[in-house]
């Protein structure tokens, strides 16, 4: 559900030996040698932090290179342009959001939904600029970015459906309801970070209630209205039990 333009390629070529980067010294510091995978992850993490702190156009490859202690050309070796770099950061953010919103098994089941939504709202609030760029900026139409969003949405659908229907495969009706809810939640979060029209606790309650409403509608559509009562433990506040 996180959040989510471009410099010219300087035609830099870097050569690696035995799977490791060559030692390249900048004017001010010497770069720590890392494997290609570790270096790429480091650059993405630096970029993710910078994009969380400022709008996309205010982040420069030179800043990323300086913080990593590498040359600008090496950054372009891993990411040919800023668009590729942003796509990698989106995937990084989506993966992190998915991991941090997993049900907390130390909590009772009736807290899972609220707790997960609260942590998602906190994540989006802390990465508001990146979230806008992913879901509303010009990068939202980039195919790589859209693919990352779809992959994350599919994972979320699978996880939520596994909780809602633990004993049998979720119906296509239920899956569509959950997928639609995720899309709606993204839209609500975007509206909220742009103007905060309601308080955070109300946003969380609205999001949780919307999911339960979608699930109840799906179960009625599938002719399983008699099973709705079994879902009450997932969001007791929505059913007026707390």
Report a brief summary of the structure.
The chain is built from 9 helices and no strands. The protein is mostly helical. The protein is elongated, with a radius of gyration of 21 Å.
Give a description of the structure.
The protein is an all-alpha fold and 242 residues long. 59% of the residues lie in helices and 0% in strands. The chain has helices at residues 36-53, 61-68, 72-78, 82-100, 112-126, 128-135, 143-164, 172-195, 200-221. The longest helix has 24 residues, at 172-195. The protein is elongated, with a radius of gyration of 21 Å. It starts with 35 loop residues before the first helix and ends in a 21-residue tail after the last helix. The model is unreliable at 1-29 and 237-242 (pLDDT under 50).
Strand content: under 5%
Shape, principal axes of CA atoms: elongated
Give start-end ranges of low-pLDDT stretches. 1-29, 237-242
User: What is the terminal separation in angstroms?
Assistant: 28 Å
Order of helices and strands: HHHHHHHHH
Oligomer: single chain
Largest sheet: none
Q: How big is the Rg? A: 21 Å
The helix/strand class is: mainly alpha
Mean of residue pLDDT values: 81
Compile the SSE list and pairings.
Layout: H1 36-53, H2 61-68, H3 72-78, H4 82-100, H5 112-126, H6 128-135, H7 143-164, H8 172-195, H9 200-221
Helix pairs in contact: 1-2, 1-4, 2-3, 4-7, 5-9, 6-8, 7-8, 8-9
List keywords for this structure.
mainly alpha, disordered C terminus, 0% strand, disordered N terminus, single chain, 242 residues
């Amino acid at each position: 559900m996180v959040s989510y333009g471009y410099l010219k390629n300087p035609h830099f070529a870097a050569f690696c030996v035995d799977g490791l980067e060559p030692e390249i010294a900048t004017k001010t510091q010497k770069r720590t040698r890392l494997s290609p995978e570790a270096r790429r992850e480091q650059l993405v993490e630096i970029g993710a932090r910078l994009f969380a702190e400022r709008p996309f156009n205010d982040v420069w490859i030179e800043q990323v290179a300086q913080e990593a202690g590498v040359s600008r050309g090496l950054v372009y070796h891993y990411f040919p342009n800023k668009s590729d770099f942003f796509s990698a950061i989106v995937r990084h953010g989506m993966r992190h959001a998915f991991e941090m919103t997993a049900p907390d098994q130390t909590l009772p089941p009736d807290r899972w939904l609220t707790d997960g939504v609260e942590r998602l709202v906190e994540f989006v609030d802390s990465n508001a600029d990146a979230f806008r760029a992913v879901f509303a900026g010009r990068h939202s139409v980039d195919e790589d970015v859209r693919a990352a969003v779809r992959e994350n949405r599919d994972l979320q659908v699978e996880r939520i459906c596994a909780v809602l229907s633990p004993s049998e495969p979720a119906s296509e009706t239920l899956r569509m309801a959950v997928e639609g809810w995720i899309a709606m939640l993204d839209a609500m979060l975007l509206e909220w970070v742009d103007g905060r029209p309601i308080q955070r606790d109300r946003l969380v309650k609205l999001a949780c209630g919307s999911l339960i409403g979608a699930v109840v509608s799906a179960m009625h559509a599938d002719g399983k209205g008699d099973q709705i009562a079994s879902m009450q433990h997932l969001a007791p506040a929505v059913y007026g039990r707390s």
